[in-house]
Design goal:
The chain contains 9 helices and no strands. The chain has about 280 residues and is mainly alpha-helical. It folds into 2 domains: about 70 residues; about 190 residues, no CATH class. The longest helix is centred in the N-terminal third of the chain and has 65 residues. The radius of gyration is 45 Å and the shape is rod-shaped. Keywords: Cell membrane, Membrane, Protein transport, Signal, Transmembrane, Transmembrane helix, Transport. This is MotA/TolQ/ExbB proton channel family protein. It is a multi-pass membrane protein.
């Protein structure tokens, strides 16, 4: 009996041991499975987070790229202060308006002097002074107007023709230079307004520092940035208008040279055809 009980006890112990080991293995497997599932879940969450973050980042980049140049200028204009940026903008608008009007006028005043001189010479040879006057009156531009004034003094002699051409040439040159004084004014005025806004902005920044009782980098940087925007705007306006001004001056110089050369050639034609003193 003792052997039987001993055998049964041994079998029971072995059975319990095997069952406990089976439970431990099952627990380990469950833990491993849980760990794997957790890792997989974390990976999925990370992937979803990355997928969610990437569109947001792309939207931010697209929003930054979609911000138009007009919007940027508008924001800088507001930050610079409407009370000082507005006069600078007015200088730009008025200066560009005058410059565009002058460009159109000067381009319309440009004349093919070689063709005009050839037509005048043919008219003098075929129909005399009156025919030449008709040609110059039907031609647009300051050169033709000077020719008309010179031909109208034909009966008074070649000297009067020359004096008439010189005098009326000065009048035409004054007309060509009309409006340039305003462009030069805006070129000088825009940077001055910008500097004035900068000085007043710096004063405001120092007032903010004094009111705060401490030199804060944020206060100083913000005040200086706003102050300098007016200077930048004024300088840009001055640069733009200066380019137009130089183009207009060069165009006027070219037209004046054409008038002078054509006037000399006209006098030579009159001498050549011996028409001085004829009606």
């Amino acid at each position: 009996m003792k052997k039987l009980f001993t055998l049964l006890a041994l079998v029971g112990v072995l059975t319990l041991g095997n069952h406990a080991m089976a439970q431990e293995e099952s627990t380990d497997m469950d833990t491993s499975s849980t760990t794997v599932d957790s890792a997989a879940a974390e990976t999925t969450v990370e992937e979803e987070t990355v997928e969610e973050v990437e569109p947001v980042a792309e939207e931010v980049e697209e929003a930054t790229e979609d911000q138009s140049f007009h919007q940027v200028i508008k924001d800088q204009f507001i930050q610079g202060g409407v009370e000082w940026m507005t006069p600078v903008l007015i200088c730009l608008i008025l200066g560009l308006a005058i410059a565009i009007e002058r460009i159109i006028t000067l381009n319309m005043a440009t004349t093919n002097t070689d063709k005009l001189l050839a037509n005048v010479e043919d008219a003098l040879a075929s129909g005399g002074v009156e025919a030449a006057k008709e040609v110059t009156r039907n031609t647009r531009g300051p050169v033709a107007s000077i020719f008309t004034q010179g031909l109208m003094r034909m009966s008074e002699g070649i000297e009067m023709v020359e004096k008439s051409i010189i005098a009326y040439g000065s009048v035409e040159m004054g007309r060509l230079e009309k409006g340039l004084v305003w462009i030069s004014l805006f070129i000088a005025l825009a940077p001055m307004l910008g500097f004035t806004g900068t000085v007043i902005g710096m004063i405001g920044a120092f007032d903010s520092i004094q009111a705060a009782g401490d030199i804060s980098p944020q206060i100083v940087a913000q005040g200086i940035k706003v102050a300098l925007l007016t200077t930048v705007a004024g300088l840009f306006v001055g640069i733009i208008l200066q380019v137009f001004y130089n183009y207009l001056v060069s165009k006027i110089d070219s037209l004046v040279n054409q008038m002078e050369d054509a006037s000399i050639t006209l006098v030579d034609l009159l001498v050549k055809h011996k028409l001085t003193g004829r009606a």
